[in-house]
Write a structure and sequence with these properties.
The protein has 321 residues and is α/β, with parallel strands linked by helices. The protein folds into three domains: 108 residues, 2-Layer Sandwich (Nucleotidyltransferase, domain 5); 168 residues, no CATH class; 41 residues. It has 13 helices and five strands. A hairpin with a 5-residue loop joins strand 1 and strand 2. Helix 4 packs antiparallel against helix 11, helix 5 packs across helix 7 and helix 9 packs antiparallel against helix 10.
């Protein structure tokens, strides 16, 4: 059965004009290291196919050289080396080196991961970190106090607010911090009414937030919502997403431009994200622009300068004949 399926996969790869490869390293519950390699292609019926080629144990260190060796071997085993496969990975240094070692080109870092890195840096600026810490303390207090939780439900009913629980964040997921702030703001009136109640004693960790904290939380949510939406689009899209990267990056950088009405916390967060995102993908702009030019939604390339646009159209025309 394995050989039958393998031959079918090989035939699909053979019939495809171009193939893209994604790879990632992961660790099992038994702490064994693995590397999974997946091929992506458009078949004869113009349908996208995602084919897991292999999951191999990597007992050696997950260095770029070792992972690059696995990629190179996979390219030869599945006869795709001559198709000049594009490679998509996260931004980890070892993955960047692996792409070079395997000579897969272009090597395009995952845009969702790129946004995650920039957003995590923004959430770690001092003012944002302190704000999150204060909100986290209040949320933790409610999670640890059944009495406070029951009283919160009562206040929610009185204020006609949704019967939602407060959310806590996960340090590795910046969007969970955004969701924590969103839920806190949604329930802020009920939270404040509960904390001001004389029905129970509370410690310092349950102090209500100041007006400036609420204002800052609203600013952070407003700033980060487009980033969160962009991440969702990239993660949930069922079609090829390479054509979306350049226009989406341009749109986000426009969103992050300084505004005279920006609060101090927003200015600081914008500055960090712009610094992180601006130079990303500069080495693969050529591939990104060509992909966008072939997408009816972005074919006019409004996010590029005139000369870049004309150059991209010329390159697409040459490759089409």
């Amino acid at each position: 059965m394995y050989e039958d399926v393998k031959n079918e996969v090989k035939q699909s790869l053979f019939e495809a004009d171009r193939v893209a490869i994604t790879t990632d390293g992961w660790t099992s519950c038994s702490t064994e290291g693995y590397v999974t390699i997946t091929a992506h292609l458009i078949n004869k019926e113009w349908a996208m196919q995602n084919l897991v080629l292999q999951t191999r144990v990597l007992n050696e260190s997950h260095t770029g050289i070792n992972i690059g060796g696995l990629l190179r071997d996979a390219g030869q085993e599945w006869n795709i080396t001559d198709k000049s496969p594009a490679l998509v990975t996260d931004n980890a240094r070892n993955m960047i080196l692996a792409g070079r070692a395997a000579e897969f080109s272009p090597h395009i870092p995952c845009f969702a991961h790129t946004l995650n890195l920039a957003s995590q840096k923004a959430m770690r600026v001092n003012s944002a970190d302190q704000l999150l810490g204060r909100v986290r303390k209040v949320v933790s207090f409610f999670h640890q106090s059944p009495l406070a939780t029951n009283l919160l439900r009562e206040k929610q009913r009185l204020l006609a607010l949704p019967q939602h629980k407060l959310k806590t964040d996960v340090c590795t997921r910046w969007n969970s911090s955004c969701e924590m702030l969103e839920r806190f703001l949604e329930q802020q009136a009920a939270v404040e009414a509960t904390l001001m109640s004389k029905d129970f004693r509370k410690g310092e960790e349950a102090n209500t937030l100041k007006d400036c904290d609420i204002s800052n939380a609203e600013d952070v949510v407003q700033l980060m919502t487009p980033i969160k939406m962009a991440t969702t689009v990239m993660c949930e899209e069922q079609q090829p997403t390479v054509s979306v990267i350049a226009p989406l990056k341009a749109k986000l950088l426009s969103h992050l431009k300084p505004n005279e009405d920006d609060s101090a916390i927003v200015k600081e967060m914008k500055n960090v994200m712009v610094k992180d995102l601006s130079d990303r993908y500069s080495d693969v702009n050529d591939s990104l622009y060509k992909a966008s030019a072939l997408d009816p939604r972005f074919k006019e390339l409004p996010f590029t300068e005139f000369e870049e646009r004309e150059c991209t159209y010329a390159k697409v025309a040459v490759e089409a004949v």
